[in-house]
Design a protein that fits this description.
With 287 residues, this protein is an alpha+beta fold. It is 35% helix and 13% strand. The strands form two sheets. Strands 3, 4, 5, 6, 7 and 9 form a six-stranded mixed sheet that branches. Strand 6 and strand 7 form a beta hairpin. Helix 1 crosses helix 3. The longest helix has 16 residues. The termini are far apart.
Length: 287
């Protein structure tokens, strides 16, 4: 706590910093939020992944850069980091305190308007509630995948997400119900078809049997579904491997790509992320 004693306790700093230190003492990872409720912007060393990808790290903890960055993943419960000189500027400008619900062992059901609150009261078990500017946060004990817009005016904030700290709320934490978990279960949806371009004149086909191509697709699917961290990077590398081996002869079909996209989406990737990863792999291979 030596660093915190040196922090200038002006009116811009004292409230967010004191709140952050109090939460950290309870084991809640925190980070400064700007006045528009967004995480502090990435530091220059990490903008556009100049740091080599740390901005996509999947586990919460203090960033190795000299200032808070990387959004939710920069949150920490270490008091000497929170009150250190490197974070002072951020706390002085902070409009509030953010925290990582999943890292704190809870899930926040963010209800954005009166109709959403009415739905929650009818469909969900009572739990701790916190008033927000436009609605309420319903907080449950337990973690799950985060997702936005699971229904009108309802977001789920838990793992790999942040929420604004608005006070301890009222009521007793209830266990996370299956009703909330079911909100993010994705129904099978058609994957945007992407066809690998075929070089003029056709490329040499390495597929002596259909089983060769099938094995390559199956291995890529397994690689994606087995990922426990760095999902973005894993999906990209799997797409790159498939395209480098099978993308120039015209044997890949929309069905093959649909299988790879579906595997990525089961790990939380959006269709847009899948399409971007595919396009980046094509570009990297000059296709």
């Amino acid at each position: 706590m030596a660093h915190t004693a040196t922090v200038r306790r002006d009116r811009q700093t004292v409230r967010p910093l004191d709140t952050a230190l109090s939460l950290a003492a309870a084991g809640v990872p925190v980070m400064p939020l700007s006045a528009d409720k967004r995480p502090v912007a990435n530091c220059p060393a990490c903008t556009n992944l100049a740091c080599g990808g740390r901005a996509n790290m999947r586990t919460p903890g203090p960033c190795t850069c000299p200032a808070p960055c990387h959004g939710w993943a920069a949150a920490t419960a270490i008091p000497t980091v929170i009150g250190s000189p490197d974070w002072v500027t951020a706390w002085r400008k902070a409009g509030g305190v953010g925290y990582c619900p999943g890292s704190a062992g809870v899930t926040v059901v963010d209800l954005d308007h009166a109709a959403a609150i009415a739905w929650a009261r009818a469909a969900l078990p009572a739990t701790r509630t916190v008033p927000t500017t436009r609605g309420e946060h319903w907080i449950y004990r337990g973690t799950m995948q985060s997702a936005n817009h699971v229904r009108d005016g309802v977001d789920i904030k838990s793992r790999m997400q942040y929420a604004r700290w608005l006070g301890p709320g009222t009521g007793t934490l209830a266990p996370l119900p299956d009703t909330v978990r079911a909100l993010v279960v994705k129904k099978p949806s058609p994957v945007r078809p992407v066809t690998a371009p075929v070089p003029a004149g056709g490329g040499e086909c390495p597929h002596r049997t259909p089983a060769y191509l099938e094995r390559g697709i199956a291995m890529a699917e397994q690689r994606i579904t087995a990922a426990t961290s760095g999902v973005h990077a894993t999906v990209y590398r799997a797409f790159l491997a498939v395209l480098s081996k099978h993308g120039r002869c015209g044997c890949l079909t929309d069905t093959h790509m649909g299988r790879l996209f579906a595997a990525a989406q089961t790990k939380g990737e959006s269709p847009r992320h899948c399409t971007d990863a595919w396009a980046n792999a094509l570009t990297a291979l000059g296709m």
